[in-house]
Write a structure and sequence with these properties.
Blueprint: H1 8-18, H2 21-25, H3 36-64, E1 67-69, E2 72-74, H4 79-88, H5 107-120, H6 122-141, H7 144-156, E3 160-164, E4 180-183, E5 189-199, E6 209-215, E7 228-233, E8 235-237, E9 243-246, E10 249-254, E11 265-277, H8 284-320, H9 344-376, H10 379-415, H11 426-434, H12 443-456, H13 461-476, H14 483-509, H15 512-546, H16 552-569, H17 572-580, H18 585-588
Parallel strand pairs: 3-6
Antiparallel strand pairs: 1-2, 4-5, 5-11, 6-7, 7-11, 8-9, 10-11
Helix pairs in contact: 1-3, 1-9, 3-5, 5-6, 5-8, 5-9, 6-7, 6-8, 8-9, 8-10, 8-11, 9-10, 9-15, 9-16, 10-11, 10-12, 10-13, 10-15, 12-15, 13-14, 14-15, 15-16, 15-17
Length: 597
């Protein structure tokens, strides 16, 4: 199993040098204590917890899995004890508001912790991870009484949370859901129905689980306009905050999955369970998007975590494994062969993993920082940041998870035949990473959201906002030594805008044109987005090298990886451009009956 070492140096580089977090947080009320020194100290401690407590449980979780019984679900050996340490150390409360019992640190710092936890042991990290969405949902839409009853316990990690959307007959099309909620005389609701694919829906790590459930009121209109949102606790909560009797809901089974065996994916039956309306009636989907958007960025982080985990395993192996000689002469003349890292194709795979991981880290941390601006910035800045997140969140969720699966497969390939053997742990990363492209809306769903709602639906306004940020960077750095990166980035930005207009015009005549282009358009958008962050990192690295400021080899590595990205990965956009412009006819012209075997 690959040993995990948190990439603390690169995390600090992104936070402090790329994103200038300390200066920003001095301008956001409530975040003034988030200095570079404090954030670095917290990251160091988080790294120790991830490396020492969670990474050793990763293999155990995969092999042992979860066990279902009538009494509940038993998580793998060591999982509950690690969770108690997590709570005792205050990690669940890190980025929560002080008034709710949190430590008041920025959300971006919480995302750093999510990366390290997820890279060390993704299946364990899902138990506390979904609680963040529950916290945000209750905080944004809950009543004062609901916040008092549930929020502090969720923030402290005493209880965990889930979101319950999917039903067996409907996945993304939530307008078809059937779970119902009947009003009761005491103001509560009796929730009845079945939800499937509920991650961390039942476990033995906390005394209570707070389920955020979508259901229909008796007089609700059809479709998504008739969905309401409810808090349904596993154990009922008394008025004084103590736990009462078990609610009338239970875990009917846990799914046998391809990966993430250490996390219980549950079928939950609600049998008139006592629940409480959160937010306005029939506006549940709007409220649930608070949870879903949190989860989408968290799922993007899954892609990054598996890139990092696979890269670290492949890199260590490539330095040790001896096979054949370098084409330019022996590099290990005293040994029987050279380490495989000398071979160009192995370098290609390692550099792909490295470039995608470091670029994705910059991208996701930037999004998390934008979330902090939304919550604490001025009205104007918050609106701009919210628009930025609206555009970039579907790209992050879909693009980064697609890259995560690619990087995981490269890790297996570097190991050769050994990569296919379970004891090395590389094939587990492939299995664990595959679900990320399905969670929280598939790549196709995210692509339609991007091109349909965010780009065309806003009349291009959201895209122009990000394009303006790219333009500003390019203008400021047009004379930099790395101007070739800047010039290339500007050309791609211009092409991105042009492609958006061209697809938009075609879609006006035939709406299928947008659907046909959507995934290729999203992937194109993702490569250009990462090019922006790599260009920024290259400019910083060049300046640091010129000033002899810091670890020169670290910055030289950044420059070389940027060059690799621009010359080897960004050109993938050329084929994406051709396919997205090829039109809908080659997809739609074949009659359904011709799809035969």
């Amino acid at each position: 199993m690959p040993d995990y070492k948190a990439p603390v140096r690169d995390i600090n580089f992104v936070i402090n040098e790329l994103l200038g977090s300390e200066a920003l947080y001095q301008t956001l009320p409530g975040f003034e204590e988030a200095t570079a020194d404090l954030m670095s100290a917290i990251i160091e401690e988080g790294a120790k917890f991830a490396e020492n407590e969670l990474a050793p449980l990763n293999r155990i979780g995969d092999e042992e899995g979860c066990t279902w019984s009538e009494d509940g679900v038993k998580t793998p050996e060591g999982f509950p004890a690690a969770y108690q340490k997590y709570v005792e150390n205050g990690w669940p409360a890190l980025a929560a508001d002080v008034e709710d019992g949190g430590q008041g640190m920025p959300n971006m710092l919480g995302i750093c912790m999510t990366e390290m936890v997820g890279s060390a042991n993704w299946s364990w990290g899902m138990y506390p991870g979904l609680s963040h969405g529950a916290v945000n949902t209750v905080d944004a839409h809950g009543s004062a009484e609901q916040k008092e009853q549930y929020l502090t316990k969720l923030v402290a990690g005493e209880w965990t949370g889930t979101m319950c959307l999917t039903e067996s007959h409907c996945g993304t099309d939530l307008g078809m859901l059937r779970t119902k909620a009947e009003p009761q005389a005491d103001g509560s609701y009796a929730v009845t129905g079945q939800k499937i694919f509920i991650s961390a829906g039942e476990h033995d790590m906390t005394d209570n689980i707070v389920h955020i459930v979508l259901a229909r009121l008796p007089d609700a209109p059809a479709g998504t306009a008739g969905i309401s949102l409810f808090i349904v606790p596993k154990v009922n909560v008394n008025a004084d905050g103590s736990l009462g009797e078990r609610n009338t809901m239970h875990c009917a089974s846990i799914e046998e999955k391809m990966g993430i065996h250490g996390n219980a994916t549950c079928v939950l039956n609600f049998d008139g369970a006592r629940g409480f309306l959160i937010g306005p009636p029939n506006k549940g989907l709007n409220c649930m998007f608070t949870f879903m958007n949190t989860a989408r960025i968290g799922t993007a982080m899954q892609g990054l975590s598996h890139m990092e985990q696979s890269y670290q395993g492949a890199l260590a192996y490539a330095k040790e494994r001896l096979a054949m000689r370098s084409l330019t002469g022996p590099k290990n003349p005293d040994g029987p062969a050279d380490p495989i890292i000398v071979h160009p194709d192995v370098r290609r795979m390692l550099l792909t993993q490295k470039a995608l991981a470091e670029g994705s880290r910059a991208f996701i941390y930037f999004l998390a920082q934008q979330g902090d601006v939304v919550s604490r910035g001025s009205e104007e800045d918050a609106k701009a940041a919210d628009d930025m997140m609206a555009l970039l969140t579907p790209i992050a969720k879909a693009f980064v998870t697609e890259l995560g699966f690619e990087a995981a497969n490269h890790g297996v390939q570097v190991f050769g035949g050994h990569g296919f053997i379970r004891e090395w742990g590389m094939e587990q990363i492939v299995r664990d990473s595959r679900i990320a492209m399905l969670y929280e809306g598939t790549t196709g769903i995210q692509a339609m959201d991007l091109i349909g709602r965010k780009v065309l639906g806003s009349g291009g306004k959201l895209l122009l906002g990000f394009a303006g940020m790219i333009d500003e960077f390019c203008e400021e750095n047009s004379g930099a030594e790395d101007a070739q990166f800047v010039a290339t980035l500007k050309a791609y930005k211009d092409e991105w805008l042009g492609l958006s207009m061209e697809i938009g015009k075609s879609a006006m005549d035939n709406p299928d044109e947008a659907g046909a282009a959507a995934v290729d358009y999203l992937m194109y958008s993702g490569y250009v987005t990462l090019a922006y962050f790599w260009a920024r990192m290259a400019v910083i690295a060049r300046k640091k090298i010129a000033e002899a400021d810091g670890d020169t080899s670290f910055y030289q590595s950044k420059l070389m990886t940027a060059q690799f990205y621009f010359e080897r990965l960004l050109p993938r956009t050329e084929s994406l451009k051709k396919t997205m412009l090829s039109g809908a006819e080659n997809l739609m012209q074949m009659p359904e009956e011709m799809f035969a075997v």
